[in-house]
Amino acid sequence: MARQKRQPCAQTDALTEKLGQTILRLRTADKMSLGDLSDLSGVAKSMISQIEKNETNPTLATLSRLSQALGTSVEAIVSQDDDTPAFLAKAEVKDTPVLFSEDGLCKLRIIGSIDTVQFVQWYDFTAKAGGQLISSPHPIGSIENLSILHGKVRVTAGTESWTAKAGETLRYRADRPHKIENIGDTEAHATMVNILAHAVRTIN
Predict the structure, then answer these.
(1) Do 63 and 102 share a domain, yes or no?
(2) pLDDT of 79-88, one tens digit each?
(3) 127 lies in a domain?
């Protein structure tokens, strides 16, 4: 008996279109070409192009390879987020974890989301005069961004050092021992964002 042709399904077609749009958005956000994504995922460039153009329905195995290469999950790619609320969470002061340096003069308030900690770590950093925050190397390729809001600091990564004052930002390799020092006479205040290795493929 001949197999009947599948009847159009608006919900399925909408999901397929969303998949293509999501994969295209993630790929371009990571500044990856079709060839780059193909090399990372093992999925043919022609197949990726067809998925992005909503010309084919990818298998679960294909979606799994693409999601891993894009640093996300199949669930995140296929989820219908149009009806999800815009507001995600509110962290009260008492619920915000706080870390201190060994000398007790530097304080890190963890203000990043636990859901993204494997990719991005976000802190509010303060240091009293003379305070030092000494850190071990992060995974190879990781980048640390330190934006100074008040005061003056010196950052040392490996054998290199730089200074920055209020309004300036330092970006440096964090995959080696690194240290932040308050070299001013008043308390230093900064925002620190660590972008871990698997989230910075295109940063050298």
Answers:
(1) no
(2) 645 555 677 7
(3) yes
Domain count for the chain, please give it.
2
Given a cut of 80, whether residue 150 has pLDDT beyond it is yes
Nearest in space to 187 (alpha carbons), one of 102, 125, 133: 125
184 within 8 A of 105, measured Cβ to Cβ: no
Contact 175, 139 (CB under 8 A): yes
Q: What is the mean pLDDT of residues 94-116?
A: 89
Mark 83-116 as b/e (b = at least 16 C-beta within 10 Å). eeeeeeeeeeeeeeeeeebeeebbbbbbebeeee
Give the domain CATH number at 175: 2.60.120.10
Shared domain for 69 and 125, answered yes or no, is no
Does residue 23 share a domain with residue 114?
A: no
Q: Which of 25, 49, 78 is at the close of a domain?
A: 78
pTM for the model stands at 0.59
60, 74 Cβ separation under 8 angstroms: yes
Q: Could you list the residue range(s) of the whole structural domain that residue 71 is in?
A: 10-78
Rounded Cα gap, residues 125 and 111, in angstroms: 10
State the residue for tokens 């932040």.
180
Lay out the sheet containing 152-157: strands in order across.
132-135, 178-182, 152-157, 160-165
Phi, psi of 130 (to 5 degrees): 85, -5
3-state class (DSSP) for residue 155: strand
Burial of residue 166 (number of CB atoms within 10 Å: 0-12, 13-18, 19+): middle
**Phi and psi torsions of 121, nearest 5°:** -120, 125
